[in-house]
Amino acid sequence: MLQAMGADLTFSNEREVGGEPVADITARHSVLRGIDVPPEVAPSMIDEFPVFFVAASMAQGRTTTSGLDELRVKESDRLALMAAGLKAIGAQVEEREEGLIIEGSGGELIEGGATVTSALDHRIAMSFAVAGQNCYHAVTVDDVSPIATSFPTFEDILINLQAQH
Q: Which residues constitute the domain of residue 93?
C-alpha cells in the first residue's frame, strides 16, 4: 500500500520465513499520496496498519481505510488508539466503525507536543515513536516498554536514523 501511495521502496534478499514473505527494504524519501485502501488487503497487513496510518497522516490528500474491524480486538483497540493519538498530535482523522479517514499534511510536519497512550501495545508505541520524527514538537508515548518484547533493537535503529537525518 505504501508503494500505491508513491513510496520509493527497493526490496532485496527476498525470502520466506515462517510462511511469510520477508525482505530487506530500502526506503527513500518520496512524496506520498492518499489512497483508498481496499478492504480485501486488510488481512495481509492487519498488524502494519498503525504505522501505515502515520504515513497516511503525512501524505498529500485523503487516505480511506475500511474492513479493519479486527483492529478493535488486537492487543488493544488499535483503531481508537491511533485515531485519538493522531488527533492529539494534530493530524486530521475521522474514526469510523471499520476504519479511519485521514487527511494528510501534504508532507508538512504536524504539530506534535502531546502524550499519546500506547495501552501497552507495542505496535501503537512504535508507530507514535515514528510519528514523532515528523512533528514540530516532541511526541511522548506513555509506555514504550512493550516494544522490547517484539523489537528489542527498535530504539537503537530509530536513534541511528535520526543521526543520519
A: 8-164
